[in-house]
Fold Steroid 5-alpha reductase family enzyme.
Amino acid sequence: MNGFDWSGFGAVTAASLLVLAILQAATFLVGRRIGRYNVVDVTWGLGFVLVAFVAAVLGDGDALRRWLVFVLVAVWGLRLTWHMYTKSAGKGEDPRYEEMLDRAGGDSPGVVIRKIFLTQGLAQWFVSLPLQVSAVLGPASGVGAVAVVLGVLLWVIGVVFESVGDHQLKTFKADPSHKGEIMDVGLWAWTRHPNYFGDSCVWWGLWLIAASVWPGAVTVLSPVVMTYFLVFATGARLLEKSMSQRPGYPEYQQRTSYFLPLPPKR
């Protein structure tokens, strides 16, 4: 890691922690006022956009890559923010957070901040490390330039899966004739979680862009952690726990891949 700009990275990561702390504090106050804390899902994508902007402005690395990363994160994050806002507007608390707070012993401010908002903020900071490190690295060349191209392509695949999957599910649910049915068409016939798969691809693509210059590759734990959350922790696994109780879902599980898109079984 010789030649790494530690002072530049220190400035970027400190500013990232500050904007995330402010964002999570404001989100907590909004959640407290409206009586539900799933509003934190709305600011999940927004937090990464803010970090990407801070990194682009304060970083002293390759300007083209800094602003490329910002644009990619902004497109992904702002779409996700709007989607989560429209999805949760006018609805009650997410059962995930109700169960989490029940296990923690209540919804006192200290418990809520520790279990939800502090955890989310730290997760945002850790997952966004590739953005922060990339902002202080020099230009990519040779194999590194190829990694940037592959990263952008993987990001495109991820955004397509995530946005198309969300749109297909929204359209399916909006049709009254589908009430009580299991969504198993379109991308949902190839994977039970196209949105989570797409999300994972986005962050592996951003990591590839960061890995185009050493030591960006050492931030590999960030997409690993993101993928773990999407597959095993707060994402697909938790959703499957509740969905498996619905009629028709066990059969859907038998014929459709869990995470990676695969041709549906008969």
Remarks:
- The mean pLDDT is 91.
- The two ends are 51 Å apart (CA to CA).
